[in-house]
Amino acid sequence: MVDLGGIRKPISIALVPEAEVGDYVIVHVGHAIGMIDPEEAEKTLALFAEMQAMTGAEVQS
């Protein structure tokens, strides 16, 4: 089960069987296809949040 921006959905980890609860993975078409370093994942998620905030501000203008 993964959390994709607040949406929880089941995925296959057949391609990354070493993935455990709490790990960050790259998901494509319902499959985990790779793992990501937690520090890098947090940086990426922060950038996505910043982009979303900027887009939301533009839409409201």
Automatic annotation (TrEMBL):
An annotated GO BP: protein maturation
The protein's name in its UniProt record: Hydrogenase 2 accessory protein HypG
PANTHER family documented for this protein: HYDROGENASE MATURATION FACTOR HYBG
InterPro entries: Hydrogenase_HupF/HypC
SUPFAM superfamilies the record matches: HupF/HypC-like
Pfam family, any one: HupF_HypC
Family according to the record: Belongs to the HupF/HypC family.
Protein origin, superkingdom: Bacteria
GO molecular function, one term: iron ion binding
